[in-house]
Specification:
The chain has about 120 residues and is α+β, with helices and mostly antiparallel strands. It has three helices and five strands; from the N terminus they run H-H-E-E-E-E-E-H.
């Protein structure tokens, strides 16, 4: 890991650490899931949010938001796939969550893996 990547990771960890509980623990768990699911993605801060990109100098593909609700989002820089079925013309891009259980972790990992191909 380059020193830039290490600095960016530290900034993401610091951003999460400054969140109030129970969100801090939830966001840390989601961060851990993302890093495990897509170790090639590099954590960084993107528009003030924890985010994950292919490199320190490329746009973020996935972001974590801690607003009124926590969410995992795919940015417009990621390759989108239509949802299919009744939602064929829609492209899912954000998922809100309040807690994270094993099923949610699995789905987050699937979403993140779909972003990197």
């Amino acid at each position: 890991m380059s020193s830039k990547d290490e600095k960016n990771l530290e900034q993401v960890i610091d951003k999460i650490a400054k969140m109030d509980e129970p969100r801090r623990s939830i966001m840390q768990r989601v961060h851990d899931v993302i890093v495990a699911a897509a170790p090639a993605l590099k954590p960084r801060i993107w528009y003030g949010m924890p985010a994950y990109a292919e490199s320190a100098s490329t746009p973020a593909l996935v972001t974590l938001r801690n607003d009124e609700r926590m969410n995992l989002a795919i940015t417009e820089k990621a390759g989108f796939r239509p949802a299919g079925g009744a939602d064929a013309a829609l492209m899912p891009a954000a998922w809100y969550f309040e807690t994270v259980d094993a099923d949610t972790e699995k789905r987050i990992a699937e979403i993140v893996r779909s972003v990197i191909g």
